[in-house]
Specification:
The structure is a single chain. Helix content is 34%, strand content 18%. A hairpin with an 8-residue loop joins strand 8 and strand 9. The two termini are 41 Å apart. The protein is elongated. Helix 4 packs antiparallel against helix 6. With 643 residues, it is an alpha+beta fold.
């Protein structure tokens, strides 16, 4: 059977293959033999596969953070790379009309020559007599009172005449005279030597002298959150982190490269700050008129190393790799969407949608299984004392942004009663992450039901479709402002038009009050799951706070990677990298090569995905293994202990 036919043939054979049962993958050495302290795929609704006849293989995802590379793809389809730490595209900014007019004056550099030229130019405006009178007044050098140093012209001038006089005095005589209009008449005040020359904000350029208000730069980070790096820069430069913009956050555990912007921060300051960063480097500076905003990207390019491959080789895996290339994978929201801790983000999202502010704070601050010791100690203090100051003193800042925001509010307000206000102190993107995680949770379950019931042969009556015409089309959001984004309306599939659409055109809605739901039994998943949480799709329009009234969105449930490539490698030392980062290339390091008789086997994958697609879900389709970070961490630890 051809690999390209696998997705269609599977639909003919009945429901797609389910995730291995726990008993099938659990043994005494397996992390799943222990009680999980993390959300598992099955808990997040991730249960189905589309590639038939494949049982998977064992390997470790992210054994090292340098096994996972992400390079952003910009809206024009260019892969973003860091190629220089210091290069900057910094052309002279276009001159204003006032600057062009000043340049045309050709003011002499010599002060006396400029003085003489001023009256040559004033004579046609004021007449020879008045020009000579002003010149004589300014040539007096003795100390006098303000009244004695003032000369009133004695007649009114029209607007153009006054403008001409100001242009001459401000540019040819800035240290000799101050000119002002009083009751419609010009007054010339001879300046004393100690007086400072006045600044003309209309004619002089401000200190910011770049072609655009935003400095754009490329940021590479290693094993750090995107916001952590930007916060570091803000602290170093003593500026507000809100001046920075980015198209999207990237995986923490990995080496990622993306474009960012900074409002009115020059590249030389960013170069200086870059040298002080922990886990990040900046470069490729340029200037533009616009901020880089969330969502302004064309996708991401991934380079992933799977180490300690067992149970597969180049021959047995070839058809599966071709299947991934040609038929793609289920576009589940990956486990990163739900957080890596024992209390998942979507659980908090449920309470946000129910406006249960006290429970939200309890979930954010309560003790969690499997956390690092210093964070656990701080949480235990809160759990036993409800003392925000004592808890805050123990909590490491970098480890808990939401917790810090809440506790700081409690300390400043002197009370722990206003939980709504405390939650509002958390950065907006993080607050919305909780409710978006809940939408993703429901969507994953709906997709699994769609595949279980109808397979993946093609569109069926009752499905919703949006033609997938472009690589970057993945999630179709309902616009907050119709004038900013065209309204995306899906088509309902019927018996008559079903053959007009591909399985890759089928979308499912993320729950919201302004989306259409499929008109078959999958619709029940939304209603039944949300009802268990005390919610409903229509109720998402009724939240007391506007930012949590979720309109919804549409997302294709099958996608294909672009430019999918793979390479088998052998190696001996797990401590050595198997791929080169952008900073490695700048520093002249060579791309690691396979060792012919290496003891260990690795599979190197490289591919592009559209925005909001998860590379770990492609790996899941390929490996048939749990992708939760907690599971992979335990696998990695088990491997290291054996060595």
């Amino acid at each position: 059977m051809a690999a390209s036919d696998q997705v269609h043939a599977e639909g003919e054979q009945g429901p797609a293959k389910r995730l291995k049962s726990e008993s099938a993958v659990t043994d005494a050495a397996s992390p799943q033999a222990q009680t999980p302290t993390y959300l598992r795929e099955i808990d997040a609704g991730i249960t189905e596969f589309i590639t038939p006849g494949w049982s998977g293989f064992d390997a470790i995802i992210k054994h090292r953070y340098s096994d996972f590379f992400v390079n952003e793809i910009d809206p024009h389809g260019n892969v973003v790379h860091l190629t220089s730490y210091t290069d900057a595209i910094d052309p002279e900014p276009p001159k204003t009309e006032a600057e062009i007019e000043i340049d045309a004056l050709n003011v002499p550099g010599d002060a006396q020559a400029a003085f003489d030229e001023a009256f040559v130019r004033l004579e046609p405006i004021l007449g020879a007599s008045d020009a000579a009178r002003i010149k004589s007044h300014l040539e007096v050098t003795e100390e006098q009172t303000l009244e004695q140093r003032s000369l009133v012209l004695g007649r009114e001038l029209d607007k153009d005449q006054r403008k001409g006089v100001y242009m001459v005095t401000n540019n040819f005589l800035p240290t000799r005279v101050t000119c002002e209009t009083v009751d419609g008449q010009l007054r010339f005040i001879r300046r004393l030597p100690k007086d400072k020359a006045p600044s003309d904000k209309r004619g002089q350029r401000s200190k910011w002298a770049h072609a655009g208000d935003y400095c754009h730069f490329v940021m590479q980070k290693e094993n750090q959150d995107s916001m952590d790096i930007l916060q570091q820069i803000a602290r170093t430069l003593k500026c507000n982190a809100r001046v920075f913009g980015m198209a999207g956050t990237k995986d923490k555990r990995g080496i990622t490269v993306q474009k960012c912007s900074a409002f009115r921060i020059a590249h030389d300051r960013l170069i200086w700050a870059s040298r002080k960063l922990r886990g990040g480097r900046l470069g490729n500076f340029s200037y533009g008129e616009k901020e880089i905003k969330l969502g302004e990207l064309g996708g991401n390019q991934f380079t992933i190393i799977l180490r300690h491959v067992q149970g597969a080789d180049a021959v047995s895996l070839e058809p599966v790799l071709l299947g991934i290339r040609n038929t793609g994978f289920i576009n589940y929201f990956g486990m990163q969407r739900f957080g890596t801790q024992s209390i998942s983000s979507h659980t908090i999202g449920i309470s946000v949608l129910k406006s249960d502010w006290r429970r939200i704070i309890d979930l954010i601050l309560c003790p969690r299984i499997g956390e690092r010791d210093d964070v656990a100690k701080a949480r235990n203090v809160w759990d036993t004392t409800r003392d925000p100051k004592a808890t805050l003193e123990l909590l490491p800042r970098r480890a808990a942004l939401a917790e810090h925001s809440v506790l700081q509010h409690f300390v400043k307000s002197g009370s722990t009663n206003n939980c709504s206000a405390a939650f509002a102190c958390i950065p907006r993107n993080l607050r919305l992450m909780y409710v978006h995680a809940y939408q993703s949770f429901i969507w994953n379950h709906a997709v699994s039901e769609r595949i279980r019931v109808f397979g993946t042969k093609g569109a069926v009556p009752g499905d919703l479709v949006i033609v997938a015409s472009d690589f970057s089309d993945n999630v179709h959001a309902k616009s907050k402002a119709p004038e900013e984004e065209a309204r995306v309306v899906p088509v309902l599939v019927t018996e008559e038009n079903a053959s007009d659409y591909s399985i890759y055109d089928v979308v499912l809605p993320l729950p919201g009050w302004d989306v259409r739901y499929p008109e078959h039994q999958v619709k029940n998943v939304y209603e039944e799951l949300m009802a268990k949480d005390g919610l409903s799709p229509s109720g998402l329009a009724k939240h007391p706070l506007k930012e949590y009234r979720l309109a919804g969105a549409y997302r294709h449930f099958l996608i294909k990677p672009r430019d999918f490539m793979y390479e088998w490698m052998r190696y001996n030392d797990d401590a050595l990298p198997l791929a080169r980062s952008d900073s490695d290339a700048i520093e002249g390091k060579h791309d690691p090569e396979s060792i012919e008789f290496g003891q260990n086997v690795a599979l190197k994958l490289k591919f592009d995905l559209p925005p909001s697609a998860y590379a770990t879900m492609l790996l899941r389709e390929l490996m048939r293994t749990e992708t939760a970070a907690g599971y992979q961490t335990q696998l990695s630890n088990n491997t290291e202990s054996k060595e």
